[in-house]
From TrEMBL:
Species of origin: Kribbella antiqua
Gene coding for it: fbiD
Record protein name field: Phosphoenolpyruvate guanylyltransferase
Enzyme superclass (EC): transferase
Reactions that this protein is recorded to catalyse: phosphoenolpyruvate + GTP + H(+) = enolpyruvoyl-2-diphospho-5'-guanosine + diphosphate
Similarity remark: Belongs to the CofC family.
GO MF annotation list: GTP binding; phospholactate guanylyltransferase activity
Biological role stated in the UniProt entry: Guanylyltransferase that catalyzes the activation of phosphoenolpyruvate (PEP) as enolpyruvoyl-2-diphospho-5'-guanosine, via the condensation of PEP with GTP. It is involved in the biosynthesis of coenzyme F420, a hydride carrier cofactor.
Length: 223
């Protein structure tokens, strides 16, 4: 899809410190939860950078390990200077993106999309022609991507019921088939199992191999 001729995008990916991230995975993965959170962010970032419509990925985080890992795959890290919540982190990242890449659209992308496919993300971004657009997660209540075209305000409203909040704010829902990997965010063990079925990226696959190895008393098994 390298010949896609539509506007480029800068993606803003917020990542919590892994010590507190993905708390709902703790019961199923008590030893590997922080590593899974880090791996999700790395795989999400790498897949996003592989889209021909993505010119840059700005990761907003104060986690030094995540910062090093996403930098290694080509992202730029922005400290979470507001440190007051998800929407504030996204506004900070969007402001940096708009200042440095004024001709690009800006899209907020969830950091927990370990099965993300570059082609599916590209299809979504190509469809984001309204001033603000969003993608509803698979459960149907949350948001995995919120996009604003150049000059439009991102106006993020993430949190409980964010899909309805974004719709009420005037954002247009992207209704495409075949974008399951963009909608499959991971909060629970069932979500992760589904992501594994879709096919997770190498960082998540490596951690899942360790999980399986710990469960069976062996090491280095594929997930």
């Amino acid at each position: 899809m390298a010949d896609v001729q539509v506007a480029p995008w800068t993606l803003v990916v917020p990542v919590k410190r892994t010590a507190i991230a993905k708390s709902r995975l703790a019961a199923a993965y008590p030893q590997h939860r922080p590593e899974l959170a880090r791996a999700f962010a790395v795989d999400t970032t790498a897949a996003a950078l592989a889209s021909p419509l993505v010119r840059a990925v700005l990761v907003v985080t104060d986690d030094p390990v995540v910062a090093a890992d996403v930098t290694a795959v080509g992202a730029r890290v922005i400290p979470d200077l507001p440190a007051t919540g998800l929407n504030e982190a996204l506004l900070h990242g969007a402001a940096v993106a708009a200042a440095e890449f004024p001709d690009n659209g800006v899209a907020a992308l969830s950091a927990d999309l370990p099965a993300l496919r570059p082609a599916e993300l590209t299809a979504v971004l190509a469809a984001c022609v309204a001033p603000r657009s969003f993608v509803v997660d698979l459960p149907g209540t949350g948001t995995t991507l919120l996009a604003a075209t150049p000059g439009a305000s991102l106006d993020p409203r993430f949190g409980v019921g964010s899909a309805l909040a974004h719709q009420a704010s005037g954002a247009v829902s992207i209704e495409l088939t075949g974008i399951e990997s963009v909608r499959r965010d991971v909060d629970t063990a069932a979500d992760l199992a589904h992501a594994v079925q879709l096919g997770v990226g190498p960082a998540t696959a490596e951690v899942m191999s360790l999980v399986l190895g710990a469960a069976t008393g062996t090491e280095g098994l594929a997930c």
